[in-house]
Amino acid sequence: MSNRRKAREIAVQACYAFEFSGNTPQQVIETTILESGEPASVTDFAVELFQKTVENKEEFDQWIMKRAANWDFTRIAVLDKIILRLIICEFLNFKDIPPKVSIDEGIEIAKKYSTEQSGRFVNGIADAVLADLKKEGIVEKTGRGLN
Question: Are the beta carbons of 106 and 84 closer than 8 angstroms?
């Protein structure tokens, strides 16, 4: 497993812990990410991804709700929402990560940790959100293969 995949999985766990624990983001970072036993190359990315996702949760949820219009947002699996937030976070905040990589990683994590249908659901919503972000000129990726 790549360092980035491991970091994404830890970020998912941290977001889940934050969602239900009532702890501050810093407490979650300390207990979930930094105590994971992973090297700094993993935890640094996990911390940054977690922090940016938590800070922008409401904005990311708006993008998800726009594209999941036929779904009751409260009935979408919590892990699917978290994974989608992380994907959107990567779209908007990590200019060096190709959107296809963000989506593919999210699909694989959804298949591993969420429901049987989660991979397809995450793929569909993430693709639609990416199309919206591109249409509005919000996604700024630089470098080869980053469009």
Answer: yes
d(CA 52, CA 90): 9
The structure's pTM equals 0.93
The position carrying tokens 């709700």 is: 65
- Residue 127 is encoded by which pair of tokens? 């693709």
144: left (phi over 0), alpha (psi -120 to 50) or beta: beta
Report the pLDDT value the prediction gives residue 17, as an integer from 0 to 100: 97
Give Cα 8 to chain centroid, integer Å. Answer: 8
In SS3 terms, the chain reads as CCHHHHHHHHHHHHHHHHHHHCCCHHHHHHHHHHHHCCCHHHHHHHHHHHHHHHHCHHHHHHHHHHHCCCCCHHHCCHHHHHHHHHHHHHHHHCCCCCHHHHHHHHHHHHHHHCCCCHHHHHHHHHHHHHHHHHHCCCCCCCCCCCC
**pLDDT per 10-residue tile (average), the chain, 147 residues:** 93 97 96 96 97 97 89 87 98 93 96 92 95 89 55
